[in-house]
Every structure is written in C-alpha cells, then in structure tokens.
Amino acid sequence: MRLGQPVLVDTNVVIEAFRVGCWRPLTTHFSIETVEKCYEEALTGDPMRPGYIVIDGTELRAGLRARHS
Questions:
Q1: Predicted TM-score (pTM) of this structure
Q2: How crowded is residue 68: how many other Cβ atoms within 10 Å of its Cβ?
C-alpha cells in the first residue's frame, strides 16, 4: 500500500487499532474510510464485558476521511 491510499476498514480493525494504540499513526499514513454501521458498532457495546475496548468517538471521527452510508 502507498501512503495516502484509501483503506476501507471494518469494526474489528477500528477496535484493534485502538486496542494496540495505532489509530493515530494509521490515520496519519492512510486515508481511512468505513461505513456508517461500522462506525456505530465501534462506539457501542457492553463496557462491563471483560476485555471491552473504549473507543474515543472524537478521535475516531477525526481519523476517518469518509463514512459511507
């Protein structure tokens, strides 16, 4: 992949990127895009579930180049 190239991601990629702390570097080097449903899924879930990863909505939104319907 080339720098700046659009990359389509799903909910699992978003959650893992936040879990390992690479969301910002990922969005710096690539134009990250997703669909609205994946965006919603990344921000929901049961925070009481063991292993739940908190997704910062502001940081997620700032890192996305586009959200497709």
A1: 0.90
A2: 11
